[in-house]
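Section 3.1: Structural characterization of target chains.
Under the original work plan, the team committed to producing a structural model for every single-chain target entering the pipeline before any wet-lab resources were allocated. The record below documents one such target. The sequence was received from the expression subgroup and is listed exactly as submitted; it comprises 58 residues.
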Amino acid sequence: MLQTLENLFKKILHIGTEKEKDNVVDDIKTYHELDYYSDSNLRDIADDTPRRNKRLYL
């Protein structure tokens, strides 16, 4: 299920509105804080997206 969410997050970071992208970044950070996603997951989600430079890192 987390892999499916990861794919959905990546898609939203590509085609979503700025507000949707901001919401996804917040959600991803929350999941990272809960240890659902690792640092490498964050890189995988952010790579090749407009938010890659912001990297979603805390």
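The mean pLDDT is 85.
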